[in-house]
Amino acid sequence: MRTRITLMLVAAGTAAGLTFVASQSAIGLPPPLHPSASPSMEPPSAYPSPVVSGPGAQAVDCATIPRLSSGALPQDAGGEFIAYGADTVTRCDTLLQTPGPTVAPPEVLHRAEAVTSFVRLLNSLPAPPADQACLRVAFTDQLSFVVTFAPPTRKRPLIVVVDRNCAALLVTENFATRVRSYASLDPMPLFEQLYRAQPPN
Predict the structure, then answer these.
(1) Residue 68 backbone class (left: φ over 0; alpha: ψ -120 to 50; beta: rest)
(2) Is residue 82 part of a domain?
(3) Where is this region: Disordered (predicted)?
């Protein structure tokens, strides 16, 4: 069989285009791959994160969690604290100084019912009152929760920083910070309860 080659020269004003068309079917070649095709079955993340990586963006590196700036609580930007579609919640204990004490390994909520229950509790917490007091304790570690979302949602992972001095949770997204107070309802015991109750992943 012979390859049929068609050359078409198209001119318009000062622009000229050359289109080269080769009939691959005539020689039994497969069609070319789409430029955006990926060898991975996982869709690419719309918002890469230095904290989260791996298949499904579920591998959390707790050592890369940004440090919380000390001082007064920022103003709450309002809105839903954690958006719909959370897939996992990882509890991180990040060392703030080296050398320092050994920190607890990451703990991950992966069961759908457990994730939903914990996120529901976080979303029920109120914004802190203007007069909420803050302590001045120099902790050697920082607690946080990293919330990842199912890949089809293409949502960026959220880092929920626990401010133990102010009994508050902070999420910074799109240069705005949402703040919730846990002075009257501590979410940490519920996380531990849900984590211990779920089967191994």
Answers:
(1) beta
(2) yes
(3) 32-53
pLDDT tens, residue by residue, 96-149: 877 666 777 899 999 999 999 999 999 999 999 988 889 988 888 899 999 999
**The pTM is what?**
0.70
Tell me which residue range forms the domain holding 93: 52-197
Residue 93 included in any domain: yes
SS (H, E, C) 83-106: CCCEEEEEEEEEECCCCCCCCCCC
Asked if 76 and 120 touch (Cβ cutoff 8 Å), the reply is no
Q: How many domains does the chain have?
A: 1
* SS3 state of residue 17: strand
The secondary element (H helix, E strand) that includes residue 7 is: strand 5-12
Alpha-carbon distances of 144 from 26, 27, 43, 83, 168, rounded to whole Å: 60, 59, 27, 17, 11
Domain assignment present for residue 131? The answer is: yes
Whole-angstrom Cα distance, residue 70 to residue 54? 31
Residue 34 lies in a domain: no
Residue 153 structure tokens = 């949602």
Half-sphere exposure of 107 (CA within 13 A, CB side): 19
Cα-Cα-Cα-Cα dihedral sign, residues 161, 167, 173, 176: negative
Strands 158-163, 176-181: pairing is unpaired
